[in-house]
Amino acid sequence: MTPLPTGSATHPGTDIAAPRLAKKKFLHDAAEHVRDTGHRAFVRKALGGYYTTRDAQKARYRDYEQARDAASLAKWSAVNRLDELLPRFAENFTANGGQVHWARDAAEAREIVLGLLRGARAKAVIKSKCMTSEEIHLNQAMEADGYGVVESDLGEFIQQLRGEPPYHFVFPCMHVRRDEISDLFQKHLGSPPTSEPEELTMIARRHMRRLYVEADVGITGANFLVAETGQISITENEGNARLTAGLPRVHIAIAGIEKVVDRLDDLAVLLPMLATAGTGQPLTCYNTLYSGPRRAGECDGPEEMHVVLLDNRRTEILADPEQRDSLHCIRCGACLNVCPIFKNVGGFTYGTTYQGPIGSVITPHLRGLADWNHLSGASSLCGACTDACPVRIDIHHHLLHNRRNAARTAPGRFERLGHRLFVAAASRPWLFAAGGWWFRKSLGLLKALRPPLLKAWLATRDLPPAPPHSFRSQWRRR
């Protein structure tokens, strides 16, 4: 397999940085990105096309809101019965000839996959889109162990050549222009320059076809795990996952434990909702169910098939009845597409595998609230994410829950003191009113002195003129 540039699979923007630096880096990167108005305009233009196609597809449903209810119920039923459905999936998948591996955390999942690669005596690995593998930093581990690994999804492949993580977990390279892709392919693949999307796709396709045949192991994710039949469901638009799963002699699928659903019938609503909310399609181009390895008499398919089921603190979210429904997420990316914060600060700024509103909800659970609570603050709480979610996750309220919980676990003395002072003022109307009176009277002085507590805020904003009277006094007059 032709090697890619050194370190191409090691993404500098992923969440392997020291957690204590995460907040400082987020604030720095957000400030830098907001100044890049050209980049922001490009991303907004790309998402404008998505809104048009999504709304047109939603209008084709007889009752889209009822479809959301059905999708939400299917996930609710599965997540609340994981203890029943996961063993049933494992039993049925094993009966189909596959092997199931249970991973408590990212390190254990990496070791399981590396062990399977060693057992297969693999030299080259082809990998389709799998955000769970990004979560456990699998590419870095495989490269460190001496394995060549190539991403077969076009967007992921472009990001791998750029040495960057996915910008968005559905549209990995949505921020990259055609001329940049052309230059990238010209540099790494020796292709002639072109600005035609079809030709750029064919360049990648010609390069990739040989790699499918040379690969010993194919690694995929799984959109859903069907307990009833012991099958994994993969939905895609390029067909690369089919080749990744079917051509190498070993197929490894990695999935979080929350991906399980009860019945095959559940996919009848979940697959269309995933496509509509994610890309504005009635259904993605390729929807495939994998039952296990090649059977006697079959002409193709892998000789071995393994599924790695990852916990990685998901059971801790399951144990929280208040935020358990965040496990319902089907990774459609709809909340990212409508989030004003994501559109302004970009995907890399989050510094973690899962960006946007849903990432801001689950990352503090997966990686620690004390170190990642700043993500929950990166929200306008406008509720657009909740309105867009096809499985009705109450995302913006979960961000509020995280903020409340973060206040209880604030790591710094000054931060804890600030929370206590705010609670003291907000719970005493007379004190809150007195603070408002003082602020109105001293606004001019604050503008002139620019105290440290307001300096960063005032760097990009102007304080509006103070109203002559408070809302309370005006209400009292009426």
Number of helices: 25
User: Low-confidence parts, pLDDT < 50 over ≥5 residues?
Assistant: 5-13
Main β-sheet, in a few words? 6 strands, parallel
Sum up the overall morphology in one term: globular
> What is the CATH T-level topology of the domain at 69-314?
Rossmann fold
**Class by helix and strand content?**
alpha/beta
* The CATH superfamily title of the domain at 69-314: NagB/RpiA/CoA transferase-like
- How much strand content do the residues show? 5-15%
Distance between the termini: 78 Å
Q: What is the mean pLDDT?
A: 91
Write structural notes for this entry.
By secondary structure, the chain is α/β, with parallel strands linked by helices. It contains 25 helices and ten strands. It has helices at 22-35, 37-58, 64-79, 82-95, 106-119, 131-135, 138-144, 154-162, 178-189, 197-214, 240-246, 267-279, 314-318, 334-338, 340-345, 356-367, 369-372, 374-377, 384-388, 395-408, 413-426, 429-441, 443-449, 452-458, 471-477; strands at 99-103, 124-127, 148-151, 217-220, 224-226, 231-236, 250-256, 260-261, 286-290, 304-310. The strands form two sheets. Strands 1-10-7-4-2-3 form a six-stranded parallel sheet, sandwiched between helices. Strands 8-5-6-9 form a four-stranded mixed sheet.
Short précis:
This protein is of the alpha/beta class.
Write the layout of secondary structure elements.
Blueprint: H1 22-35, H2 37-58, H3 64-79, H4 82-95, E1 99-103, H5 106-119, E2 124-127, H6 131-135, H7 138-144, E3 148-151, H8 154-162, H9 178-189, H10 197-214, E4 217-220, E5 224-226, E6 231-236, H11 240-246, E7 250-256, E8 260-261, H12 267-279, E9 286-290, E10 304-310, H13 314-318, H14 334-338, H15 340-345, H16 356-367, H17 369-372, H18 374-377, H19 384-388, H20 395-408, H21 413-426, H22 429-441, H23 443-449, H24 452-458, H25 471-477
Parallel strand pairs: 1-10, 2-3, 2-4, 4-7, 5-8, 7-10
Antiparallel strand pairs: 5-6, 6-9
